[in-house]
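Same chain as my last thread, 250 residues:
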Amino acid sequence: MKLHRFLLSKNILQPLGEEIKITEKDLLHQWNNVLKFKINEKISLFNGILEKDFIYKIKYINNKIAILEFDNKIKNISQKKEVGNINLCISVTKKEKISLIIEKCTEIGVLNFISLISDRTEKKNIKSFNSKKIMKIAKEAIEQSGWSSIPVIQDPKKLYNVIKEIENKGELEKIIILHTFDSKKHINTITYKENLKKLGFSYIFIGPEGGWSDKELDFFENKKLCFINFGKNILRTETAAIVSTFLLSL
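reply #2:
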């Protein structure tokens, strides 16, 4: 039987010991009313810090409290060890697309989501950025996929400022820009068939639905950044995000 896996939220984060008490309302609601857990059923808990899952047996449960008895512990999966430190830098898009991107790319192993305000980003999309809802999606994706760490999801910031931050860390050579239109004219262009991880990339930049502006493309060229081309066809933003981060994880 598959063990249900749950992240301990910050307000109940504590050292995992022999016996713990859970009073967090959302968890108790899920356990009692959705999953309908019973006495002696086992669940898996992790805290997003330790690379271990702790298996507990339900000793007592009602709508206000659950008392859990320690049973065992197992090693969970570290994103950094398995896929590396993947940073997805993506122009803010419609909220339903952001939700899908966060869910699927978290499952792949992205550890850092950087939301970009680019020249063609629509202002209405910036206003729709709901970090609380997005973090909930990331949390559920981590619980489902078995990873050990919760990704960082940054509030939207200007593209040029993000590039500057990465430059200040001396990591410009780790950036790869997704660009389809006229990509042959760029000197530093590679194809998706090349091993992105072996080439040293850990930041992938994806533009808005309207594509990068000429000003941004000139900026990338001046910084001698590398481009990646997925072919002549044009991918949707969410498809490009999922495909590119998967390639970066291989």
